[in-house]
Design goal:
single chain, mainly alpha, 6 helices, 0% strand, globular
Length: 158
């Protein structure tokens, strides 16, 4: 998967260079990890919102249950993409992998709690638009998840 991401990324960077965005390409390469997180964080958010929308609006599952289903699907997607495409984790011991998985899903459970609390208060208590609130909450969650991933889960060993 990492090789595919590298190929696609290089393809687009070459296009950007050809159309005169060389400074952007240089900046991107300097901030590659953060930029990749934005791309895959955006995709994770899309997976989360689409899963929530399908569960809540189409299948008519309760708000909280829909939110949890969306979290499970997007957390699995996020772990795989963060591990291999964003932070290039090369953990090769069972102990290291267990730490990585537990810390990843532990931090994600914390942000799920924040997500759930905000959704319950804004949608269930105040009757605000569920999809709009899901989008707003995801902005907060993406930022928190990046901080946790960078500082705790996939931190580079020195």
């Amino acid at each position: 998967m990492k090789k595919l991401v590298d190929i696609v990324e290089e393809f687009f960077l070459k296009i950007f260079e050809k159309i005169g965005l060389k400074k952007f390409v240089e900046w991107y390469k300097e901030h590659k990890e953060g930029m990749r997180y934005l791309v895959f964080g955006g995709l994770t958010t899309l997976v989360n919102i689409l899963t929530y929308g399908i569960a809540f609006y189409i299948i008519h599952i309760d708000n909280s249950i829909s939110n949890i289903i969306a979290w499970v699907v997007s957390a699995i997607f996020a772990y795989i993409t963060n591990k291999y495409c964003v932070f290039n984790s090369n953990i090769n011991t069972a102990k290291g992998l267990i730490y990585e998985i537990i810390s990843f899903f532990g931090c994600r459970l914390l942000t799920l709690g924040i997500d759930e609390a905000i959704m319950i208060i804004t949608v269930d208590k105040f009757g605000l638009n569920a999809l709009l609130m899901k989008i707003i909450v995801n902005i907060i969650i993406v930022i928190l998840n990046f901080i946790f991933s960078k500082l705790i889960i996939f931190k580079k060993k020195k």
